[in-house]
Structure formats: C-alpha cells, structure tokens
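Dear support,

I submitted the protein below through the web form. The confirmation email said the job was done, but the results page showed an empty box. After a refresh the structure appeared. I'm attaching both so you can tell me whether what I see now is the final result or a partial one.
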Amino acid sequence: MEERIKKLEMLVQRLIVKSTKKTVSAMITPYPISNCVAGEDVHGTILKYMFSARGVISKGRIQFDKKLKSGVEIVMRIENDIGGSSKSYTVARNIMLVKPNIEVFSGDRLTISVNPIDREEKLNEVWIAFVWIPYIGEATVKSFLIDKVLEEIEALKEIEDKE
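What the results page shows now:
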C-alpha cells in the first residue's frame, strides 16, 4: 500500500510540473512556394500564388541560368480586393536571396515577374522558391496532456499488476 502511495505521489508531482510550465513550444510548418520557367526568352510573370490563410512570406531564392551583364529586375506584387503593394529588386548576379517579410492575408494574390534590364539579353531558365509561414492562429492546435496522464496511469497499473 505504501508503495502505491509513493507512485501516486510521483504521478501528482509530474502533473504539477507539467501544469505549471510557463512556456509552450509549437512547430508551425512553413509552406514552400516555387516554380521554374524555361524557354528561349523568359521574362514577365514567372509565378502566381493565392494564399488561403494569414501568414508571412519570410525568405526566398531566385536563380537564373546565367548572369546578365545589365542585370534583372524582379517585382513581387501582392494584390487583394482593396488594393495592393509591391517590392522590386535589381539583381546583377545569377542568384539572389531575399527576406521580404511580407504579411499576407487569406485571398491575397502574389505575382512575381522578372525582366532583363537590357531586352537584348535573354534568360533561358528561372527558378524561384519562397517560404510562407502561416500564423499560429491559422494552425490546428491539439492537446495531448490528457493522453499523457492516461499513459502514466496505465503504466502504474501494469507495475501494480506485476507486483
């Protein structure tokens, strides 16, 4: 009987520690947004994407098949029913890393365009990839505390049964 009381006290201690924890960690999986466009003269719109939930476009990478002498203009445009905004970049290399940190809402539409500064220069391939992270309010939250308690109780019962 004394052994059983010790085990129950241990279970209560574990529950107290778990219930008094001040911080909670959660993993929100980012979503990749990517595309590749290939051809004899790649320019104009290379990616269109519509967001289904609120979040942020955190970082991205654009890679061209070659470096153009005059560079390439990249335009990121976000549009919705009430207006829009845009960011533009001029790239003198064949790879560009960006951290636009653009907040997006459900229904926002992203359009990305590329245009060589000198129209005589031509791109044959453009790769693009961005990471969109939905806000935690858009994620499904599940609680497993009760499952853990039940597991602990079952483990104690198994120990008791063996004794």
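Response: this is the final, complete result; the empty box was a page-load delay. Strands lie at 31-38, 44-50, 55-64, 72-80, 83-91, 95-98, 102-104, 109-116, 125-134.
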